[in-house]
Amino acid sequence: VQLQASGGGLGQPGGSLRLSCAASRIDFSINHVDWYRQAPGKQRELVATLTSGGSTNYADSVKGRFTISRDNAKNTVYLQMNSLKPEDTAVYYCSADGHYYNNRGEDVVGRYWGQGTLVTVSS
């Protein structure tokens, strides 16, 4: 399974961007999803979580501004980022736990990572 992250780019302070993370297998059943970010010279930070039950959790730094969601039909998860701040500048990574059945009928369970997408917030 590959996770393809997209949607990064240059955002204006106060503006919005939406990140997407699409699973390469349509039969990949996504359970738990996280979005992380890593700013230059800083450790990777957990930004948002969406559990299999639909619960969400956010870092204090993004609470009220970011929203994590998923589209099961497209097997894609999103991170809507509003009221962007320069300190939101980072490479954003999606991570998903889930499973699929391979061609031998085996249940393959794992955690997968996207390649990262750069978000730069600047005027």
Features:
123 residues, mainly beta, seven-stranded mixed β-sheet, four-stranded antiparallel β-sheet, 0% helix
Report on this model:
- It is built from no helices and eleven strands.
- By secondary structure, it is an all-beta fold.
- The strands form two sheets. Strands 2, 4, 5, 6, 9, 10 and 11 form a seven-stranded mixed beta sheet that branches. The chain has a four-stranded antiparallel beta sheet with strand order 1-3-8-7, with no helix packed on it.
- A hairpin with a 5-residue loop joins strand 9 (90-101) and strand 10 (107-113).
- It starts with a strand and ends with a strand.
- The mean pLDDT is 95.
How is this structure best summarized?
The protein is mainly beta. It is 0% helix and 56% strand. Strand 9 and strand 10 (107-113) form a beta hairpin.
